[in-house]
Amino acid sequence: MRAALARFWDGDLAWSWRHTPVAMLATFLLITLLVAAFGAPWIAPHNPFDLATIDLLDALKPPVWLSDGTTKYLLGTDSQGRDMLSALMYGTKVSLLIGLAAVAGAMSLGIVLGLISGYAGGRIDALIMRVADVQLSFPAILIALLIDGVARAVVPGDMHEVIAFPVLVGAIALAGWPQYARTVRGSTLVEKNREYVQAARVIGISSPVIMFRHVLPNVLGPVLVLATVHLATAIITEATLSFLGVGVPPTSPSLGTLIRIGNDFLFSGEWWITIFPGAALVLLVLSVNLLGDWLRDALNPRLS
């Protein structure tokens, strides 16, 4: 294990990271946000969603550096008396979980369809790519809204909060698979004509085994870069849907839900209720985007 880590640290990717200050800063920022988000149950000052610990008399407290601020609530409180710092930690966790799950879903579906399209060719290729082209002609947020609306219309109203998380993940995943499919298809078209694929065919290995055991590992590089960039897009899409009121419920809010709740108080003087969640969302998306841009350049042999 130690030898493997040493080889990685001495490799080209680690060398590029060490000599790219923006990538190092983005990594530090992202790790900080990840620790704050997934460590929220242990390091958050309060549990903002435990009704037994919320006091309405503490509602709309300003941040600690303002005249009426208190050290009990460093970033102030919202209209319900919930600690904003703790709410940011829990909200960031929800946004990250939805983003990661949506990217995993879109990547899995896109890889499978891209491999089938590129390897099979013919009518199957034409059908899958035309579906992808049609979907790409619509904004991802519109497709996600459509899928979310259909799911909510089919499911009874008292089940909306229960299905909110999986429906949101599925909507974002179904809106994002075409990019993966097109990327994997392009790489598969090149790989299927290589000698190792021809040799596998000659000795009688089945097409599914060739696709997933031999071709797939050689097309994952661009997919991983795309997934890093898509994570930021998925988080923004989730925040947009939650801001529009069709995302996760207020009982387990994401950053988008917190921004929507705080938007009602923005012009009444309680600016911190929406500014802090907005700033956390910007920092999260910015760090992921910067890491994705660096990874794309580091793995591009033409830029080496």
TrEMBL record:
InterPro entries the UniProt entry points to: BP-dependent_transpt_permease, MetI-like, MetI-like_sf, OppC_N
Residues annotated as transmembrane: 22-44, 94-116, 136-155, 162-179, 223-246, 271-292
Keyword GTP-binding in annotation: no
CDD domains (alphabetical): TM_PBP2 (cd06261)
Annotated ranges, domain ABC transmembrane type-1: 92-292
One Gene Ontology term from the biological process aspect of the record: transmembrane transport
Keywords: Cell membrane, Membrane, Transmembrane, Transmembrane helix, Transport
Family: Belongs to the binding-protein-dependent transport system permease family.
Record protein name field: ABC transporter permease
Organism: Zwartia hollandica
